[in-house]
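Milestone M4 deliverable, item 7.
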Amino acid sequence: MNKIKLIILREYLTRVKKKSFIVMTILGPILFAAMMVVPAWLASMEDTDVKNIAVIDSSGIFLNKISDTDYIKFEYLQNTTLKKVQNIFPESDYYAVLQILPSITYEPSAVHLFSNKQPSFSIKSHIANAMEKELKDRKLRAHGIDQEVLNSIKSDVSIRTIQWTEDGGVKESSTEVAMIVGYASGFLIYFFIFLFGAQVMRGVIEEKTNRIVEIIVSSAKPFQLMMGKIVGIAMVGLTQFLLWIVLTTGIIGGVKTVFFPELGTKNAQEVVVEDLFEQQNLAQIDQIQPQEIEKFTRIFNSVKSIDFGVMFGSFIFFFLGGYLLYGSLFAAIGAAVDNETDTQQFMLPITIPLILGIFVMMNAIQSPDSPVAFWFSIIPLTSPIVMMVRIPFGVPYWQVALSMGLLVLTFLGSVWLAGKIYRTGILMYGKKVNYKELWKWIRYKS
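Output delivered:
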């Protein structure tokens, strides 16, 4: 046991002192923080240049019907032609020319937007929505239906999801939040298993190629070496993961304090709602704001309802279980070959379950209690990914316990199997190994 501890310590200290570990530990949180902060920052940035659009309305329907915004102004031209406007367009301050043909009432494509630039999607959407509303109102009036009547009977439906707790109480939940949390957890486990499992394989190949392993096995058994390497790299992965969480949280908090200090003085719900409606028309806010405030209040309550302690504990268990299971198999592959090129034939049976787990994860997000999601969350080769997707939706304790138990048992079996291959292959050089040869190694008696 002491020898395994020494090997674990050697693997851990050797890897955390590498420049690649230090660089990724620093660079990772910066990238994660940028993925969260930059989209929000870009979304808050606006094109403040006022865009003037000339309107040639041959139908006579839309005069002053397309409303201006803070950054889009419409100028309605009369007694002119498109050709004349095109001639003066380079010297004018027009951003675009909107031509509306008389056939607009029965031909949807009778609207043309001319410009020397590619108009933005928001401008096209604003024009299309305004014209569709005006045409709709005209058709309603033609049939003797008042628009106010339609507005008065319009009803919105917002479904709240409430969970009954075991003690008879209730708590608000959100399918959307559970989907996001589950997907992020499952994908991170998939990513880390591949990342650190491949590190185990490369480490074994490197030591085997450099003949360092010959010195190490003179004082430690191959099985001890394999276990020490797997656990040591697992500790490196957990250290880096925890550092990423701490540093990412610190970076986001620092950016918020420096660049968005108002977020620290307001309730988070108020900030979200204010950002959402600050550009809306005041008349529309009076109608929409209560429903939207209630919607975001539910989302925040749903986030609070998720037991992140259980999620974090489950994540650590399934990450370690999945990593140790696949790490032992990756170590066996590394011991069986002399270079990374020869690993391809043995990698396929290992990577297929992981990739299959990702595909089933997509199905489990939509139907967490389906038979497919259930069985793949129990099967050890895919359970670390699929079960993490199901847990935010609520999984019976016996299913979680069964999944964990089978994962532990399969890990022990894989360690025994990998140990057989590792013991023989770690000191074998220059021989092309196939599956038949691996089967012989597994059957060797001690």
